[in-house]
Amino acid sequence: MSRFSALPFISVLVLLAADPTAHAQHRDLTQYVNPFIGTDRMGHTFPGAAAPFGLVQLSPDTDTVPYAVDGAYNRRVYEYCAGYQYRDPTIVGFSHTHFSGTGHSDLGDFLVTPTTGALRLNPGTADDPDAGYRSRFRHETEEAHPGYYRVRLDDYGITAELTATERTGVHRYTFEQGGEAHVILDLMHGIYNFDDKNVWTFVRVENDRLITGYRQTTGWARTRVLYFAMEFDRPFVSYGHAKYDSSVYRGFWRKFDETQNFPEMAGRHIRAHFDFHLAAGDAVQIRFAISGVSAEGALANLRAEAPGWDFRKTRAETAEKWNTQLAKVDAEFLRDDDRTVFYTALYHACLSPAVYQDVDSRYRGLDQGVHRAEGFTNYTIFSLWDTFRALHPLFTLLEPRRTGDMVASMLAHQEQSVHHMLPVWSHYANENWCMTGYHAVSVIADAAVKGAYAGDLRRALEASVATSTYAPFDGVGAYIRHGYVPQEAFPYSVSATLEYAYDDWAIAQLAWKAGDEVTAKQYLRRSASWKNHWDASIGFMRPRRGDGSWVSPFDPMDTHGQGFIEGNAWNYGLFVPHDPDGLVRTMGGERRFTAFLDSLFTMGLDDRHFANTEDITRDGIIGNYVHGNEPGHHIPYLYNWTSQPWKAGERVRMIMDRMYVNSSNGLCGNDDCGQMSAWYIFSALGFYPVAPGSDRYWFGCPLVRSAVISLENGRTFTVTATKQAKENVFVRTVLLNGKALDRRYITHAEITAGGTLEFVLSDTAH
Predict the structure, then answer these.
(1) How far apart are CA 513 and CA 126, in angstroms?
(2) At 87, which CATH number?
(3) What pLDDT, in 10s, does the model give residues 581-621?
(4) DSSP 604
């Protein structure tokens, strides 16, 4: 039995067959996507409308939980990282920017809400929705597909429909009753909101259909500016706004009544409204484009991507983009739910990084200047502590051209950085410095080694070296001096050292590829630094001080205050993906190593050991193995370095079965911009990139019956599973193009050459 609750019935079929604009070149795979997976509990995904890798992610927000209460962090806000919680009974409105499954948040820009009757500009509360403009809704009227969302706002009798292009959201609101109606544009709303988050807001009413403006915020991204162009398909009859600023200075604008029909609105906290007189059954459509550059850029995006008012056509075109994206892996499963989980994972994996440039290739850079992307498409939202592990390697396999653009975007970021660093965790022309490691170097090395990035390798290597030598970042200076990060230099010292060691190995691979033997050897030496945290007396990685002494007391079970970020020594201590052979030797040999892995999956982890770690919950834990957070994602594949490699497949199948379910709380932790989903995609196919930067994918046990991967080079690679069954979780034989492999991995070149990989499965290990 699954520990996750079942999802109430929701239609997940895309009904486009009768639409003459739909152009299906292959079977409709969007029908297997359930955008509600992960919208409850820790999943933090959103069900709204977006194009693949689109900047606009237009989705309902179900509450306005503040970041702080009485000056202290509000733990409830964590549930609203994506703005939507499945269990909520009300919808506040529909905002245009969202993160998918992050453990911290921002965005939620430009909330739009249709209402009827008396004008109310306060959103109200979940306990008292009648006090404001929010509306109750029911899941029975809610429908979501890739690129489309629909719901009935019960308090107003309005059917809301959303679709999107890469830079433009398209709304259609159908009013059951005639009379006075309003569309509210809430420029105060945001995700992870607080009183001072809005820096400034400006709105121009250009005519009786078109509005432009911008919003500047501070928060996770401390200097973020986003412009918009908003156009109605019919004229509004009046408009106005309320300002909630506390400034004592009003200037000489006070000579005007700015609240009604005044075409300029400016302030820190503004809610605007646009009013209509409608007949029963009337629909109001809105096109809403955004830009990081200018209102002019937003309007150009709107004109280029959504030039007309044919909602069905826009929806169909975006659905076909999704179908093309999903068709890169055409997979069959024994169970319908597994197929839904797989294609939903592929859908989630392609929500970010997001295109971050206007249709004329201009974008706002890290230096806050306007740049033009020459020869590449610029991307934003790099959650690299999460996504270097499997998401970016998935793109390297399925999306090499797009991967090359992402690498070019990272190099542009580094050029614009006053710190001369590649992105750590970046979005919307900002570095937010979240999490440890400098994992952009892993993404670049993986792309270079596998041929997805064919640009200036010398330039890429220089950027990677500059990043790895920036002393003020998270103990890097101390790491270079001591060969490890002392605990007094950085509180997550062991995590940092282990991650720097892996990243340094990745730099070495890039250096070999660039033909720089000196740098390669230097960084290979640095990549052995992980050994400096091994305490043989207790058999765990452990924090130490600058004088070499071990930090005491030390609890290898605890996830807080022990030198690890969001993990404990049992899990995080296994993060040596670039040297598993060395790790096995260090931990006492293959026999002890196997016993350690076995214990990890079978022992217990008491709640008190992760009570202070927000990103770890009981739902993502098997024994003491934490799958709900990323540092352990490679761990089940480490059995490939033992004499019992079949356990890798057994553990992987167990994790897929328990941790991924077709339900609203069917993700065991944050999806983290697609990393949790990418792990599932690789694992369902039967192989996984344990060490990105290597050309090897290590075997687990596939969940697919068969899968055809369509590669960008025109070839196809087919995975088949002979004797696939729920109980057959052991791999007896692996054949590549009919020939048995005597190794536990396949190379990138073998996949991209095309061919067939066959797994022969069994219900016994021997």
Answers:
(1) 56
(2) 2.70.98.10
(3) 999 999 999 999 999 999 999 999 898 888 888 888 888 99
(4) -
